[in-house]
Design goal:
Blueprint lengths: L1 H11 L2 H10 L7 E5 L2 H19 L3 E5 L4 H10 L6 E4 L1 H9 L22 E2 L2 E14 L11 H5 L8 E4 L2 H11 L7 H5 L2 H14 L3 E4 L5 H6 L5 E4 L1 H11 L3 E17 L6 H12 L1 H4 L2 H4 L7 H6 L19 E2 L2 H20 L1
Parallel strand pairs: 1-2, 1-3, 6-7, 6-8, 9-10
Antiparallel strand pairs: 3-9, 4-5, 5-8, 5-9
Helix pairs in contact: 5-16, 7-9
């Protein structure tokens, strides 16, 4: 199958590029391409890793952004589109993509070995990029006082009037709905694994649906909150904290009941620049480099050594701080691999009515 993909990738190259390659003597006419989530997250990676990588190696980088979904990767790889090399992916996309041969297996010895990372950051096809959370965020200039603390508060539009921002996906949304309905974090996935539990989550969503603004990119959240279009939103804390630092905003967050997970760096199996891509992964996961990332966006680190070296003050706004893990729920990627398709179909049908 690998040989067929390589052949498709070659045949997909425009003739002009093939000719250019032959004339210039270069093996590949474009820069190494790395793909992230955009916004302040991508800016943080650029400042922490990508600029220094080019200075250290002379390898030029170009960037792209995406919103996730293994189907996007599948279409590119199986269709022979070789425009991406290194991509930041969520856990269930990593699992599915690795099973389907869409990602290159990693050489862990070149990354310092599996033991150099926290356990959840290690996978045959991916290395942890960051540890992050989804939680409740709001504008302290618009909601005075302590603000919402729990997912029950998020659902309480009488006490906290205004619309709510939520990611347009059943993942996270169903979990939050159950916690808002009184299900303890430890029982969320056992509950969702039953038909009655799924029905319960959708009934809770019914109550909030008229007040929801659905977003597709996390980079939209600061603007939604800042403009007052929503009173509060599901968010990652880093985006709001960066806006507080750089724009003088007064965004606030509640960590109670947050869902936390690891994002991963992967190399696409049809990348024509696998060696350079592996160099980039090594650069981004070196402890002395990774420990720079929280300077630009608050996030948990996946390198054990980086976690030991980092200034403790930079942990305060991240899931690496135990004080932020009250009632926290680790995203169950295997649940979403197993049930993601059917729940997405039901969620999209629910949105349409």
């Amino acid at each position: 199958m690998t040989g067929l993909r390589r052949l498709l990738a070659w045949l997909a190259l425009p003739a002009a590029l093939i000719g250019l390659t032959g004339c210039s003597g270069e093996s590949e006419p474009r820069p190494l391409t790395v793909v992230g989530w955009g916004g302040s997250s991508q800016e943080a990676h650029r400042r922490a890793y990508w600029q220094s990588f080019t200075r250290a190696t002379g390898i030029r980088l170009q960037e792209d952004t995406w919103h996730g979904g293994v189907g996007v990767i599948r279409t590119k790889v199986l269709g022979g589109d070789t425009s991406w090399d290194v991509v930041q992916v969520e856990t269930e996309d990593l699992i599915l993509g690795c099973e389907e041969g869409l990602f290159e297996p990693l050489e862990w010895s070149s990354l310092g070995g599996r033991d150099a990372f926290i356990p959840t950051a290690v996978h045959d096809c991916g290395v942890g990029a960051m540890l992050w959370s989804y939680l409740i965020g709001w504008d302290g200039d618009r909601i005075e006082g302590p603000g919402p603390r729990t997912w029950a508060d998020f659902w309480d539009v009488e006490r906290f009037p205004g619309r709510r921002g939520m990611r347009r996906t059943p993942k996270y949304t169903l979990e939050f709905a159950l916690m808002a309905d009184g299900v303890p974090a430890s029982q969320v996935y056992p509950t969702l694994r039953t038909p009655a539990g799924i029905d319960r989550a959708f009934r809770k969503l019914d109550a909030l649906k008229p007040n929801v603004v659905w977003w597709s990119s996390i980079s939209q959240v600061p603007d939604l909150l800042g403009s007052g279009e929503v009173a509060m939103s599901v968010t990652s804390p880093g985006r709001l904290i960066v806006a507080n630092r750089t724009e003088g905003r007064n965004f606030r967050v509640s960590w109670d009941g947050n869902i936390y997970a690891v994002d991963y760096w992967v190399i696409l199996s049809n990348s024509p620049r696998k060696a350079e891509a592996a160099q980039l992964l090594r650069h981004m996961t070196l402890p002395e480099n990774q420990m720079r990332l929280p300077q630009y966006i608050p996030t948990g680190l996946t390198s054990r050594r980086a976690g030991e070296l980092i200034d403790p003050r930079l942990r305060l706004d991240t899931p690496s701080d135990p004080n932020n893990m009250t009632n926290a729920l680790e995203l169950d990627a295997n649940f979403w691999v197993e049930y993601g398709d059917q729940l997405t179909q039901r969620f999209n049908a629910w949105l349409a009515h």
